[in-house]
């Protein structure tokens, strides 16, 4: 076994040496020549071929290491594994060897004959054994040999013993013993080999150095490349990032813009949707309102249709009555021969707005001579007749707002008939009057106002259609001014359900008839005055007019005036005269009169710039007597008459003690005058204060009974008494007996007390005038209030007369008239105050009035620049009228509205200086500066009058003094 292993080991060593020999030629070194295989037996070759066959290598053409796993070769030792043969042969370690390569490899290792090789190896060399036995071990060798051997090893590069060195030692020793000549060769060979080894080592180190250097260079280059790549990657990444960012920003901005645009669109759409919703809501509301209005209109239409039918029936009945009464009724306006007939048309009539109902034709008729109609000093046998529309009432009351308008101013002749006929009363005390004749003159001719007798409370039955029929005692109304109201009433009876129901179609008296439905108040002169029964309760207008003329209670010798006051509050339309005639004309006019204009629902119209009256319907006085009198309406209601009356009862008052304007502080305490002396002997017209009491009560008693108490007569107006829509004043210019002063059956303490406090009017002369009005006014002037509409003329006058501001007055229609008595500097001034309408359609009418003006209060509204600018227009009108010596007072009203002021006070003052007129500012609402301007105006008028008297004697002789008249 040991020998086998040794052979195997040898074989391996030989194999390795052989392998080394096979390698050396490959390296190109001068390797030794490959020894030929010693012996490669046929058996070995056969085994090899069998192996190729068994493992399939022959088919594949190559041998793998695995193929040798189970192979057995006879030339291999037992300890040698067949796979080692493959490792020996496969020096390049390719894993597979071709059959040729494997065969030649084996042959190179084992020789041509493996058996020989085995034999050779198994047969020891005869010299090697004894030599081995004779050569001592290295440790036992002598020092010389050992030194020589170490030197040899030193040449080989090893200085210490290795296990192989022992074998080398023995080989070297053997060689020195057996073949000493080869020892030197061995040493040379060893030296050469060591040299070669050193060279190889140097080469190796150089190569390693070069390799390391190259490796470091490579590493450096790689690192550099890596860094460069990293930098480039970083740059590119940054670029990409920047591009991405910019692209993202652009995209985001675009997206933002798009989003904002979308959002705006959405908002617009939302707004549009909201607007549409609002519009839809509005439209739906509007539609609902329209539906409700349509419903209301339909209902109103149905109501109106029914009412219209009823009205038509009533009108037909009325027309029949009018036709029946036509022959009996006469409408006369007797004038001097010089006075143009009423049929003539006079130019310059007030323009009538086509949209507004025209003024009645007989309202300042075309042919009226204003000199005649308005002359206070009417000649004898003439009676001045004034017809009034109902006075306007404040809007804040529930009563109707019938505009007040002068319906007629005419002159009739003697009052004989009038005064010759005692006022008749029915058993209940209601005044009576002869049928068909309301105011008659002494010679039998008179003004027949029956055409206006349309008081709803006057039963139709009382109007005898037959002219010759004796009058029957019945309540009647002879108020020309009652026409509109009657019409309205008639209309309203059809339109508005009255509490009392419609007016009785026949002669059934209205509910209030006995109390004051139709009353006639005649003021007989002294001669004509008889013991006729006086009305138990004179109508309010009647009393008011009594008060109006109460100042000159007893006319002078030349005064034979007669005054008749009638009152028709609300008469059925039955008494209307027939159409076609003068009365009919008036009737027709009355249908379009302002009274109806305001009273008729369909014709309700407000003056421009005025707020419509709430409810739009006139109120009740014309509808139902019960609805008329209200506390607030007391004054306005009776304005047509009470204005005049209050002038004496309240106004004169204007002169209460302590009045600053008056130097005469002491009130007059003279006994109430019983006569109104004529201002001039020529004057035949009574003073404005002259009014006969209805029942002929002694004036002294009446006045004396009240004035000492200081309490003004209380207006004992029955609650249910309807407001008189108009009044008629008949003043006869013929001399006659003095009229007894009417007793003041009614007093109005509220006017004095409350009004004075409210208005703040300076009480001074009023009391004295009220208590002791002068019998004969020293001066009488016509003062016309001019100015644009809405400036406050009527409010001013209302305050002046009633000491209370009446809010909500309607626009004046035509012209209004009041009398104001002032005691200034111990002289009695009677101012006839004409309240004109500022609306343009009445300007021509106003222009006619201007001809007789003594003084003009030209009013503007300090809150209206336009009204201030129109001041020059009104002055031009004044100049055109030829009124050269008119005293003008420029008055700016509404100074309480300081926040709305458009006209500075200085501007008004400058204009007044420029125009040479007086100037002042006032507030009708506050009652500021109301009476003072009038007192100053009275003084200026007096100065003007005195100057004219002195300088124009001749003219004055042709023209009766103003003081002699009581009206234009
Ligand atoms: N604040 C204030 N309002 C006033 C004053 N005077 C009158 N008014 C108001 O002005 C409006 C017109 O008043 P009116 O007296 O009817 O005016 P007018 O000048 O008579 O108008 P016409 O009759 O159309 O010419 C009414 O509403 C009054 O209440 C005032 O001093 N201050
Ligand atoms: Mg007015």
From TrEMBL:
Q: Which GO terms describe its cellular component?
A: early endosome membrane; endoplasmic reticulum membrane; lysosomal membrane
MF GO annotations: G protein activity; GTP binding
- The source's domain of life comes to Eukaryota
Per UniProt, the ranges with Polar residues bias are: 579-595
Ranges of compositional bias, category Pro residues: 502-513
Start-end of Basic residues biased regions? 7-21
Instruction: Provide the protein name.
Output: RAB44, member RAS onco family
Q: What's the source species for this entry?
A: Sciurus vulgaris (Eurasian red squirrel)
């Amino acid at each position: 076994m040991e020998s086998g292993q040794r052979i195997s080991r040898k074989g391996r060593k030989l194999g390795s040496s052989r392998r080394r020999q096979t390698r050396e030629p490959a390296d190109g070194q001068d390797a030794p020549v490959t020894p030929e295989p010693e012996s490669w037996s046929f058996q070995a070759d056969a085994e090899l071929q069998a192996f190729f066959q068994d493992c399939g290598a022959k088919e594949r053409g190559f041998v793998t290491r695995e193929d040798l796993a189970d192979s057995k070769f006879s030339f291999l030792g037992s300890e040698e594994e067949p796979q080692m043969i493959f490792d020996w042969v496969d020096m390049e370690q390719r894993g597979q060897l071709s059959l040729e390569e494997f065969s030649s490899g084996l042959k190179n290792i084992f020789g041509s004959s493996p058996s020989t090789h085995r034999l050779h190896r198994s047969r020891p060399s005869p010299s090697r054994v004894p030599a081995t036995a004779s050569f001592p071990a290295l440790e036992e060798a002598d020092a010389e040999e050992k030194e020589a051997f170490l030197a040899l090893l030193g040449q080989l590069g090893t200085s210490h013993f290795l296990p192989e060195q022992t074998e080398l030692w023995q080989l070297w020793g053997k060689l020195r013993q057996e073949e000493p000549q080869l020892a030197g060769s061995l040493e040379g060979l060893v030296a050469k080999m060591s040299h070669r080894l050193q060279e190889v080592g140097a080469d190796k180190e150089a190569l390693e150095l070069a390799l390391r250097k190259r490796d470091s260079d490579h590493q450096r280059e790689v690192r550099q490349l890596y860094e460069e790549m990293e930098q480039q990657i970083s740059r590119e990444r940054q670029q990409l990032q920047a591009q991405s960012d910019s692209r993202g920003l652009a995209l985001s901005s675009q997206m933002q813009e798009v989003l904002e645009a979308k959002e705006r669109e959405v908002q617009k759409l939302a707004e549009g949707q909201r607007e549409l919703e609002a519009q839809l809501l509005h439209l739906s509301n509007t539609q609902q309102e329209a539906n409700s209005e349509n419903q209301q209109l339909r209902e109103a239409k149905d109501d109106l249709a029914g009412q219209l039918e009823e009205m038509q029936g009533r009108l037909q009945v009325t027309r029949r009555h009018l036709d029946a009464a036509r022959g009996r009724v006469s409408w006369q306006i007797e004038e001097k021969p010089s006075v143009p007939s009423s049929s003539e048309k006079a130019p310059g009539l007030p323009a009538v707005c086509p949209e507004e109902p025209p003024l009645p034709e007989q309202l300042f008729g075309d042919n009226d001579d204003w000199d005649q109609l308005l002359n206070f000093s009417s000649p004898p046998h003439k009676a001045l007749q004034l017809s009034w529309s109902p006075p306007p009432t404040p809007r804040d009351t529930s009563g109707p707002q019938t505009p007040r308008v002068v319906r007629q101013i005419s002159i009739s002749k003697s009052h004989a008939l009038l005064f010759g006929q005692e006022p008749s009363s029915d058993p209940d005390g209601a005044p009576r009057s002869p049928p068909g004749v309301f105011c008659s003159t002494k010679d039998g001719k008179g003004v027949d106002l029956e055409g206006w007798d349309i008081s709803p409370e006057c039963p139709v039955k009382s109007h005898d259609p037959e002219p010759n029929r004796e009058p029957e005692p019945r309540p009647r109304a002879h108020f020309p001014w009652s026409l509109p109201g009657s019409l309205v009433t008639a209309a309203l009876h059809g339109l508005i359900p009255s509490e009392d129901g419609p007016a009785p179609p026949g002669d059934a008296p209205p509910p209030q008839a006995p109390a004051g439905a139709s009353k006639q108040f005649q003021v007989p002169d002294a001669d004509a005055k008889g013991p006729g029964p006086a009305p138990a309760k004179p109508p309010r207008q009647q009393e008011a007019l009594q008060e109006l003329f109460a100042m000159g209670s007893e006319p002078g010798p030349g005064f034979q005036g007669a005054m008749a006051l009638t009152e028709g509050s609300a008469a059925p339309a039955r008494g209307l005269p027939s159409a076609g005639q003068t009365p009919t004309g008036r009737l027709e006019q009355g249908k379009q009169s302002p009274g109806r204009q305001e009273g008729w629902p369909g014709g309700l119209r407000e003056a421009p710039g005025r707020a419509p009256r709430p409810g739009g319907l006139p109120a009740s006085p014309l509808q139902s007597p019960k609805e008329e009198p209200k506390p607030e309406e007391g004054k306005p209601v009776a304005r047509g008459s009470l204005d005049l009356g209050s002038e004496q009862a309240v106004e004169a008052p204007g002169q209460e003690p302590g009045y600053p304007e008056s130097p005469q502080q002491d009130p007059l305490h003279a006994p109430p005058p019983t006569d109104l002396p004529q201002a001039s002997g020529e004057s035949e017209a009574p003073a404005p204060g002259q009014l006969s009491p209805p029942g002929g009560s002694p004036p002294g008693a009446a006045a004396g009974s009240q004035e000492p108490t200081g309490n003004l007569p209380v207006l004992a107006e029955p609650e249910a008494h309807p407001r008189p829509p108009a009044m008629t004043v008949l003043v006869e210019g013929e001399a006659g007996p003095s009229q007894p002063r009417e007793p003041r059956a009614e007093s109005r303490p509220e006017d004095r007390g409350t009004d004075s406090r409210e208005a703040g009017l300076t009480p001074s002369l009023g009391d004295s005038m009220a208590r002791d009005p002068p019998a004969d006014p020293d001066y009488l002037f016509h003062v016309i209030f001019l100015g644009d509409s809405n400036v406050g003329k009527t409010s001013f006058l209302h305050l002046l007369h009633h000491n209370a501001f009446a809010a909500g007055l309607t626009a004046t229609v035509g012209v209004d008239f009041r009398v104001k008595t002032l005691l200034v500097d111990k002289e009695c001034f009677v101012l006839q105050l004409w309240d004109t309408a500022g609306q343009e359609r009445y300007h021509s009418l106003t222009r006619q009035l201007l001809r007789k003006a003594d003084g003009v209060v030209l009013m503007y509204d300090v809150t209206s620049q336009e009204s201030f600018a129109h001041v020059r227009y009104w002055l031009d009108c004044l100049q055109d009228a030829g009124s050269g010596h008119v005293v003008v007072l420029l008055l700016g009203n509404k100074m309480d509205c300081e926040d709305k002021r458009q006209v500075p006070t200085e501007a008004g003052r400058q204009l007044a200086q420029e125009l040479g007129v007086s100037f002042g500012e006032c507030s009708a609402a506050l009652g500021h500066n109301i009476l003072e301007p009038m007192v100053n105006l009275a003084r200026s008028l007096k100065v003007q009058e005195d100057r004219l008297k002195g300088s124009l004697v001749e003219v004055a002789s042709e023209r009766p003094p103003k003081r002699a008249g009581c009206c234009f």
